[in-house]
Amino acid sequence: MSLDGMQLAQTDLTLEQFVNEPVGSAIPEPVLAPEVVPIVAPTRIALLLPTRSEGLVHVANAVRAGFMAAWQHEPANIVVNLVETGDVPQDVLIAYQQAAAGADIVVGPLTRSGVTAIVQSHAVVKPTIALAQPEASEAGLSPGLLAMGLSVEDEARQIAALNGSGKSAMKAVAISTGVSWQRRAAAAFVSAWRGMGLQAEAVELPMNGGFIDGNGLLELRNRLQSARPALLFVALDAAQTVQLRLAIGGEVTTYGISQLNPHAREDWATATPLLDLEGVRLLDMPWQLQADHAAVMTYPHLPANPEQRRSTDIERLYALGIDAYRVAHNIALRQTDFTIDGVTGKLTVHFGSGTPRFERTLQPAIYHEGVVRPLDPQ
């Protein structure tokens, strides 16, 4: 039988033999109290991913695989249900509302537009771990939403803090092309750099036939010779940065974000060294850099396709799935302030009263002998 959600163990104990005993007489055998066993319902997590989107199904499956790998390692008392969506914001919003109605915690959406849609609609009614950042104007508006997506802007701000904090006079130039993520990263770096009272200039290089325009590089070289910055921030990929360095040389200290690392960690053993990037510094996640990292060694890696090089973006999203489950697990345990030495970085989380806060500290690295190698944190 049950009582107020508690289950009582049954017993064959009978008290008939004590009916005629005088009050106060000794009871020949002790009476066992019934065993009380609490019934704890499992925490229901809805994993909201765009698996019905032709363009996003591969990245959604990577996040799902990482999330389930972490769940299988530590399932606890958690049930995970996949909620499939497309990539249209309205579709994501409807799926989110349905997921929240039947779950204790929602993990997702995975797209910036999807996160923005649920924030703008004030739809957050359950603890929600978004896997992308909302648009900047919507950030911090939902007390029940923790955004832990991978962010080039956060990487850029971390580079600015590492190199400019405490400095009184240090000029930097941020270089990008017209690609959206590059513009966002460069703008975030410049804003953070100027926020510390330092000088920063943004330069956007034109593209021509898939390469940086040669005239733009010549103009940049002349500009740098005149400005003499102490640091270059390159919001570029590895191939573009090679082209940049061949044009302007390597005299100025150069920093970049994770897109400067073009290979999965295991593939560097057979990759052609990028000697033109020697000395360039960057940030990336432990999953891509540190084979001996405790968490990296804990979880299985995605199976390799012998006919295809691993995608660094897919690897990073798989790692995001792992850390998303670990954060959700802590929230399921009613943790409000905690840190995790995660596979995507060191995570600091506040989720409870007040505005949720999330910070990811990435791993510094450097090109040495043409290969990306981790550095000791500064």
Structure report:
It comes from Oxalicibacterium flavum. This is LppC family lipoprotein. Keywords: Membrane. InterPro entries: LpoA (IPR007443), Peripla_BP_I (IPR028082). The N terminus is likely disordered. The strands form five sheets. This protein has a seven-stranded mixed sheet. The chain has a five-stranded parallel sheet with strand order 5-4-6-7-8, sandwiched between helices. The protein folds into two domains: 134 residues, Response regulator (Rossmann fold, 3-Layer(aba) Sandwich); 144 residues, 3-Layer(aba) Sandwich (Rossmann fold), CATH 3.40.50.2300. Helix content is 33%, strand content 22%. The chain has 378 residues and is α/β, with parallel strands linked by helices. The chain is globular, with a radius of gyration of 27 Å. It contains ten helices and 20 strands. A hairpin with a 2-residue loop joins strand 1 and strand 2.
Question: How are the SSEs placed, and which strands pair?
Answer:
Blueprint: E1 2-3, E2 6-8, E3 36-38, E4 43-49, H1 57-73, E5 78-84, H2 89-101, E6 105-107, H3 112-120, E7 128-130, E8 145-147, H4 152-164, E9 172-176, H5 180-195, E10 200-204, E11 207-208, E12 211-212, H6 214-227, E13 231-234, H7 238-248, E14 253-256, E15 281-284, H8 286-289, H9 294-298, H10 312-332, E16 337-341, E17 346-350, E18 357-361, E19 363-368, E20 371-374
Parallel strand pairs: 4-5, 4-6, 6-7, 7-8, 9-10, 9-13, 13-14, 14-15
Antiparallel strand pairs: 1-2, 2-3, 11-12, 15-19, 16-17, 17-18, 19-20
InterPro entries: LpoA (IPR007443), Peripla_BP_I (IPR028082)
Protein name: LppC family lipoprotein
GO molecular function: enzyme regulator activity
